[in-house]
Protein 1
Amino acid sequence: MKVTKLALLVGLTALVPTLSQAGTLEDVVKEGVLKCGVSTGIPGFSAADSKGVWQGLDVDFCKSVASAVLGDASKVKYFPLTAKERFTALQSGEIDVLSRATTWTATRDTSLGLNFAGVNYYDGQGFLVSKKLGVTSAKELDGATFCIQAGTTTELNLTDYFKSQGMEYKAVTYDTSGQTIDGFKSGRCDAVTSDRSQLAGLRIKLDDPKSAVLLPETISKEPLGPVVRQGDDAWFNIVRWTMFATIEAEELGVSSSNVDEMLKSPNPGIKRLLGVTGKTGEDLGLKNDWAYQIVKQVGNYEESYDKHVGKDSPIEIERSYNKLWNDGGLMYPMPVR
Amino acid sequence: MATYTMKEAKPAPSTNKGVIFWLRENLFPDVKNTLLTLAGLYFLYTILPPLLNWMIFDATWSGSKEDIVNSGARWIFIVEKFDQFIYGFYPEALHWRPNLVAIICILFVFSFKYIKSIKVKIAGIILFPIVCYILISGGVFGLETVPTEKWGGLMLTILVAAVGIVASFPIGIVLALGRQSDMPILRTLCIGFIEFVRGVPLITILFMASVLLPLFFHDGIEFDKLLRALIGITLFQAAYIAEVIRGGLQAIPKGQYEASEALGLSYWQGMILIILPQALKISIPNLVGSFISLFKDTTLVLIIGLFDILAMVTLTNSDTNWLGFEVEGYVFVTIIYWVFCFSMSQYSKSIERKFNTEH
C-alpha cells in the first residue's frame, strides 16, 4: 500500500515537467499581471524596502518583462520563494518567470523541465581581505589565514584554487556563515571567501567597511539568470529578449532619461530597438514599442545595476564581469534587429 | 486585688524580621546557599550591566542611520521597519483593519469568561472568525480586497496560530473520541491519522503543502499558499490535541461513563454533559502547552516563503540600506514572542482557576 502510494507520488512528480502549459503570454495578458518569482530577501537582488516595496536587480527584471508584455512595469505580482520551492513554483504554473539569483547549471536546465533565458548577472566566488594586509590580488595570498565555513563548496573551491596556484593557506573553520564573518570581523583571519555579491553585502556590515577590500579574482562560475518553463518557446523568447533589450539599450546609450529624445535618433540600431523601424515586437507577439516601454519605465541594464548593486547602492559591487562586452565584460546582447 | 494589665506586645527581635531577616533566611541560611547566592549575584553582575547598557543606556532610539554614535542597540531599525514587522506587506492605508481585528479579539477573549448565556457564547465563536476574516481579507461591503500574499509579520504569526488553535480543537476532540470508539473502522482511521501525523515533523507537512500539492492541482487550479499551510498546520495540531484530550478522557473514572449511561443519556449527551467538561478541564494545562508550542512552531512557515514576524527580520535585513541589523531584529522578536507566550500561559491559569471545582 505504502509502496504503491510512493510510486504514484514519484510518478506524478516526474510527469509534471512534461505537463508544462503553453500559452503563458496569453495567460499573462488575460490576467493583466505578471507572476514573478523572487527571493525571500537577497540584498541588491530582491528585497523589500522600508515601504514594503520590492527592489533589486532581479525585481527590475520582473518589471522589465511586465513593461514589455503589458506596457506597465507596476503590473507584477511578486512571489517570494525559498531556494527549495522556486523550481516547483515554476513547474506548477504558480509563477510565469523565476527571477531569483538562480545559477544556471546543466542539471537544472535539463532534468527539471526548465529553461534559462540567459545570464543577467555573472557572479562567482571571490575574496574579501583586510586592507591592512596590503594585498591587491589573490595571487599574493600565499600563507594567508582564511575564515571558512566547514563543509561548503566554497571551501572546496578555495582548496582547488590554492592547489592550482601552488600556494598554501591556513584555515580557521566555523560552523555557520555568521560565525565566519564574526571571525573575520574580530581579526582571527586575513580573508573570507564567498560569492562576490554576498561578500559585498557582508563588507558593509563591518564596523568600518573601508577596512576590507574585495579582490578582483573570481575562482568559480555562478551565472545567475531568469528561468522559464520548458515547452513554451514564445514565452521563452520574450523573457530572453527582454534581457537582451535592457543590455542593448545600455550599449546604445539609451536610458530612461533620454529614451524619448532617442526616438528621434538617426541611429538605425536605436530605431530598431525602440520600434521606430522594424517589427521585432510583433514577431515576439508584443507591441513594437516593447523595448521602449522597458527602458522608459525601468531603465537599461546599467541603470538597474548601479541603482541596486552598483555604485549608487550601499553595497557598491564593481561591474567587473558584468561590464559590456566592448568594455571588457561578458555582457553581450544579441542584436535586436 | 491585683489587676492584670495586658502588656504591650514587644516587636519581634530584629534578627527575626525585616529585610535582614528575609535576606538571611532566603539568601544566606547556610554555607552552601550563601555560596550559591554569591555565585548568582556575580553572574547577574557580569550579565546585567552590559545588557542594560546595550539595550537601554547606550542605545539609539531615534534619528537616522547615518548619525549613529552610540555603541548600543540601534533601535531605529525597529522603528523604521516597525510596520513591516507587525503587518508585513499589508497596505499602510488599511492598517486600521488588522488593528480593529486585534481590538475585537482582545475584547472577545476577555469578555468570554463573563458571558453567561451559552447561546451568546456559541454565536460569538461562530461570528468572530467570520468578522475577522472579512475585515482582514476584504472583498465585501466595499472593503478593498487584500490578497493573502500581502499578509505578514506579527499579524500573520497570530493569524496562523489562531486558526491552528481554533480549527484544530474541534477536530482534535473528534479524533480523541474516535480513537476511543467501539467502531473498529472509525477507530482504526483515527489511530492511523494520529500516528501518521505525529510521526512526521511539521516541516515535512509544510513542504508537502507548498511543494507537492501544487503539482497535483495542476493547470489552472490555484490553491492559496497560506490556505495550504493553514490546512497543514491545523491537521498537524489536531493530532496532538487529540492525544492531549485522550489523556483527559482516560483520567475520568469509569464510574462517570457508567453513571451517564445509567442516567439514560445517549452517547453524545453523556459526552457533552458529563465526560468532556471534566476531561477538558483536566487537559487545560497540556492544551495550553501545546497551543504555546504551536504559536512558536508557526514560524516554520518561513521555510515556505510566508513572511511571519521572524521571516520579516531576515527580509528587512536584506534591504541594502539596512544591512547588519539582525541582532536588534532578533531581540525585538524574542521580546514579542515572550510577551505572547507568557500572556497565553497566564490566561490559561485564570481559566484553570475559574473552572476549579475542588475545595
Protein 2
Amino acid sequence: MSHPADLNIDRIAELSRLALTPEEKARFSAQLGSVLGHIEQLAKVDVAGVEPTAHAFPLHNVWAIDVAQPGLAVADALRNAPSQRDNMIVVPKVVE
Amino acid sequence: MNYEAVIGLEVHIQIKTHSKVFTRVGAGYGHEPNTLTDPVVLALPGTLPVMNKAALDAIIKAGLLLGCEIAAVCKWDRKQYFYPDSPKNYQISQYDQPICIGGFVEIELPGSARNVMGEHKNIPLTRIHLEEDVGKLNHHVIDSLVDYNRAGTPLMEIVSDPAMHTAEEAFAYLTSIRNTMIYGGISDCDMEKGQLRCDANISIRPVGETKLGTKVELKNLNSISFVRDGIAHEIKRQLAVVAAGGKLIQETRDYDGQTGTSQSLRSKEMAHDYRYFPDPDLMPVHVDVAWKNSLRDTCPELPFDKQRRFLSEYAVPYTITSVLIPERKLGDFFEAAAKLAGPGRAQAVGNWIANDFLRELGAGKIALAAAKITPAHLAALVQLVDAGTLLNAAAKEVFAEMFATGEAPAAIVARLGLTASATDAGELETWCRDAIAANPKALTEFKAGKDSAINAFKGPIMKAAKGKANPKLVDEALRRLLASL
C-alpha cells in the first residue's frame, strides 16, 4: 500500500533519535505508511450529524483530592538516565 | 505616519497545591533536584494521570475573580513537542475547550502624582486554561541538566486580548493579576521562583489601522519591571525598523533585563505544529452551578474594590490605601484596627501602618503574620494619642515597645511613665494669657476671622511648658480664652 504523502521519515527518525540507513528508511516508510493507510480507512465513515467526542464513555470529573504522597527516590528516578550529574539528567546542550 | 503599539500578554501562573496536577507526588519550589518525581511525572510506561481537584477549584476561582465565563464542559489535550523539559514528549493542556472564557482585568495606570489615583480601565481576556508545567533545564557550557521537580506543577495560562498599547498598561495589568491571585490564595506569584511568568506579543500598526501588524514574541521577562522595560524597548525597536524603511519579521526575541537589550531566538518560519489531540487518559470536566457557587463563596473582595471602599468608608488618603491594598493581610489589619479605634481615627491608624509599622517590619525582616502588634493594640495607641493622654513623641516610643514586646500600649505607658504631664490648668492658663498678651497682632488677626493665627501663640506656650504640654489641651485653652476676650 502506498504511504500518505505527508509521512516524513527523516523527521520521524530525527524526533525518535534514530540513525536510519537509506534501506531502513525505505523499509520503515513502507511499514509506517501501511499502518497510516490502514487508519485512513476511518476517513470513509460518514460522520455527518455526529457530535465530536474525545471519549467513548460518558464519564467525567474523575479526580483525586490534593494530598501529597511520597514520590520516587532520586536514585530510582534517575535509573534510566544514560548520563547524570548533580542528581540531574544530562542532555545535549539545547540552547546556544 | 503615526504608529501605535498593540500588546497581548500570556501570563503563566503556578497554582499553589500540595500535589501535582495529574499525580499526587508533592509540588513545590526549592527542593533538591529530582526529589519531586514519580512514575507519572517521568512518563514511565503504563502510568495514567489523575486530575487534582484542588487545581480545578483554584482555576475556577481565578476565573470568577476575573469575571470569566466558566465553561460547562472542558477537556484535556496533548500538545506534542520534543524537548528534554518534557519527559512525555507532550504537555497536557487545554486547546479548543478551555475552562475559563473571556473576563477582564481591571488596571490602574500611574496617576499625575504619587498621591493621585490614576485612570482605571478593564483589559479584556481571551481565556484561561489549565496545563502542566514542565521540568527545568540548567544550561552549562557543553550540556544541559534536567530537573523534573517542576514538571507537572499545575499551571494556568491567562491570555489577554491584544488590547494594551503601552508598556505602562502591561505593567499595571501584571500588577493587578498578581494582586488578585495573591488575594484569592491561588498563587504566591513570586516571579523569582517562577510562580508567575510572562510572554508578551508586541506589534505596531499605523494609527487607525484595525488589522494587527507582524508580531514579535518577547520571552524571559522575569520581573514585572523587566516586562515594562522589555516591552518599551521592543516598541522602540520596531518603530526604528519601520522608520528606517525596514520590514519586521515574525520572531521570538529574548529580552535581557540586565543589559536592556534583546536578541532574536528563532524565527517563526520553523513554527511548531503541536498536533493537539484530546488526551484519551483524562475524562472531561463538567462544572455545574453548585460547584461554581461554592467557589464564588470563597472569593475575596477584589483589591481595587477594597481600595474604593477604604477611600469612601474610612476616608483615608489614596497614598495610604495604595500601601495597604497590595497585601491582603495588611488591608485586613488596617480595617480591624480602624474599626476598633472608632470613627475619625482611621487615618491615624493608616499612618501608623504605612509609616512606622511597615518600616519596623522591613527593618527586622519580619513577616506581617509574625508581628507582635495586634490591631487592638494599634487602635488603643491611636485612642491614647487622640485623647491627649499620650504626646506624639511618646507615642513613637510606645509603638517601638509594642512592636518589640507585644504589650498593650496602656501597660507600656504606665511602665515607662509616659503619660503626658497633667498640666496644671492654672499654669496653662497663665502661659496662654502671656502668649496672647505678647502678640497683639495675631490676636487682631484671629478676631478678624483668620483661624490659623492661633498657631502663633502655641510656640511660646510650648516653650514655657518645655514641650510637655498636650497640644490638644493648649488649643482648647487658647480658644476658650480668645473667645472671652
